[in-house]
Amino acid sequence: MKLKYIKPDMDKIITSYEKLLTDLNKAKTIDKQLNIIEKINEIRDDFFSMEWLSCINYFLNVTDKYFIEQEAFFAKNKPIMENLKLKYYQALLASPFKEELKEKIGNKVFQIADLEVRLLSNETNEQVASEKKLTNKYSDLTTSIKVNFDNQEMSLTKLNKYIVSDDQKVRIDANNIKKEALLVKEQEIDKILSDLIEVRTSLAHKLGFNSYTEVGYIKMRRLGYDVNDITKFRQNIAKYVVPFVLKLKEKQRQELGVEKLKYYDNPILFKDGNPVPLGDSKFLVNQALKMYKKISPEIYNTFKMMVDKELMDLDIKPNKFNIGITTYIPKYQVPIFISNFNNTSYDVCVLIHEFGHSFQLFSSRHLKYYENWWPTFDTCEIHSQGMELLTLPYMNYFFDKPQKYVYEKLFTTFSDFCFQCLVDEFQHEIYDHPNWTNFERKKCWQKLDKIYRPWMDYSDNEYLNNGNGYQLISHIFQNPFYYIDYALSNSVALQLYLLSLDNVNKGWDKYIQLCKLGGKYTFLEIINKNNLKSPFDDNYFKEIVEKFNDYLNK
User: How far apart are CA 248 and CA 453, in angstroms?
Assistant: First the structure.
């Protein structure tokens, strides 16, 4: 990554920001307010840019002393910036030109302001800073875990290559090594989660909420739907998708020729192994260039720009955090993303997924203000997962048997719905019961796992059998309540895919238009504006399952 990091001058930022807020509240004309809003957003964009550059550099090497120090700096100062942002939102909501401003800067800015101003408090700085330290502690701990396998020391990320081996004995041995390493760290990881629940619950109570669940919904910017809609969404997946995946799992068992599908068989869909890409990261990037050139000049030019400017870091490296993540750096007007390739089909999936985010962010860079160019998470995952599904007809660029990857992708899309609901309901439970012991949390995970993934058999693995399956899901620790957004957005991405099967150009045209809209509208508004169906409709998953049933079961 060649983007220059410059440590923010907090004294200068605070002084300028507070003066601008005073001027905003005193402004007598809408033009004066708009001018001040522009200047406030310049400060926000610069701070946000450097915060993310620090975070990305830290993820690239969690032992880098300089960026460890910078992360501590942001842990200390982010609460200050958050409160200044909320005071800015307060001023917007109190503006005598509120209705005119909505026309100029977008209604969604005010929707988010109205939602997030409820988090305004000078009494939660300690909790926000503590939360940042704990999430970084989790990153440090999980990245530091090393195992000896295949005559070499490796991270858990690199071990994943063996966990999806077509040789069952290799899979079993790799899982046993992973199990032993995680049993050593089990109590430390649970302590971090316990501390996070305590800190987040304390923050919620100081803000006047009953539980952190309410805060989590605000932070995730749930607009136009609530916890009851999410509950119904999960129930419909349990009703329609879980039985569908159970049938697919029986087909998988027969394909593998095993008497019972064990947890270590779960990722393997074909007797001769899952599809493996034809080359390393350099090869895959070159093939992606060829693919995007065939699909769209606009998409190709964005991908080539990212390649030329070295805005992707794809390979596993010592002390690199196991994460796939994309962000946008407004100061330089470019997206960046990192991943950890491991020579599995995951490499192709994540390259396309993260570029989907990048293409959206670059496509909507013309939109002013963070709230407009950065979609809410339920919407932004449409762009990543939509890109994954729409490119399925082009998998011959990456695999010698592309049809296997297409089947794997569609299969895992439906099984992922189940896992995403498991994670989401688990998070609701642990924050609605903040005084639970670690044992009670594990029992909850076990119970929900049986509801959403009844095919899973952990009887040979005491670590997983005891309900520890949540420990390596970084979202639970770092981005609570995010996981269900993958399911919400994937339900929309599937509609784009079905549209493309009827008319490939219409599918891509609608996708590109969605990306250009960025975050200007809410999740449900995006769906309505594009004549798509809401995943909250009772019959949505019944219809989707029916459409894919013949293809995946033939």
Answer: 12
List 326's β-bridge partners, or say none: 337
DSSP β-bridge partners for residue 154? 147
Paired with 328 in beta bridges are 335
User: pLDDT tens across 484-509, in order?
Assistant: 999 999 999 999 999 999 999 999 99
pLDDT band at 318 (very low <50, low <70, confident <90, very high): confident
Q: How many whole angstroms separate alpha carbon 210 and alpha carbon 202? A: 10
Task: Please answer whether residues 86 and 119 qualify as being in contact, where contact means their C-beta atoms are separated by less than 8 angstroms.
Answer: yes
Q: What is the dihedral of CA 233, 416, 349, 469, to 10 degrees?
A: 130
Number of neighbouring beta carbons within 10 Å of residue 440: 14
> Would you say 59 and 325 are in contact if contact means Cβ atoms under 8 Å apart?
yes
pLDDT digits (tens, 9 = 90+) for 336-369: 999 999 888 999 999 999 999 999 999 999 888 8
Do 512 and 390 meet the contact criterion of CB atoms below 8 Å apart? no
- Number of other CB atoms surrounding residue 96 within 10 Å: 12
Distances (CA, A) of 304 to 18, 32, 226, 346, 352: 41, 40, 40, 21, 13
What's the rounded Cα separation, in Å, for the pair 21 and 380? Answer: 30
Q: Are strands 334-341 and 312-315 parallel, antiparallel or unpaired?
A: parallel
Q: Residue 75: CA atoms inside 13 Å, Cβ hemisphere, count? A: 17
User: Where does the chain hold its CATH 1.10.1370.30 domain(s)?
Assistant: 125-554
Q: Which residues pair with 152 in a beta bridge?
A: 149
Residue type at position 204:
A
Alpha-carbon distance 281 to 291, whole Å? 15
Tell me the backbone φ, ψ of residue 318, rounded to 5 degrees.
-55, 130
What Å distances lie between residue 288 and 150, 198, 302, 355, 359, CA to CA?
31, 45, 12, 10, 13
What type of residue sits at position 55?
C
Task: Tell me the β-bridge partners of 327.
Answer: 336
What would the two tokens of residue 120 be? 């305004």
Using alpha carbons, select from 231, 76, 133 the residue that is nearest to residue 478: 133
Residue 153: beta bridge partners? 148
Which two three-digit tokens encode residue 159? 């071990």
3-state DSSP of 282-301 = HHHHHHHHHHHHHHCHHHHH
Nearest alpha carbon to residue 519 among 360, 345, 281, 358: 360
Nearest CA to 155 among 147, 165, 167?
Answer: 147
| Total Cβ atoms within 10 A of residue 153 | 10
* Phi then psi dihedrals of residue 97, to 5 deg: -110, 25
Q: What is the pLDDT of residues 377-412, one digit of tens each?
A: 899 989 999 999 999 999 999 999 999 999 999 999
CATH class of 125-554: mainly alpha
User: CA-CA distance, 323 to 441, in Å (whole number)?
Assistant: 24
Instruction: Give yes or no for a contact between 387 and 496, defined as CB atoms under 8 angstroms apart.
Output: no
Contacts of 229 (CB under 8 A, 6+ apart): 536
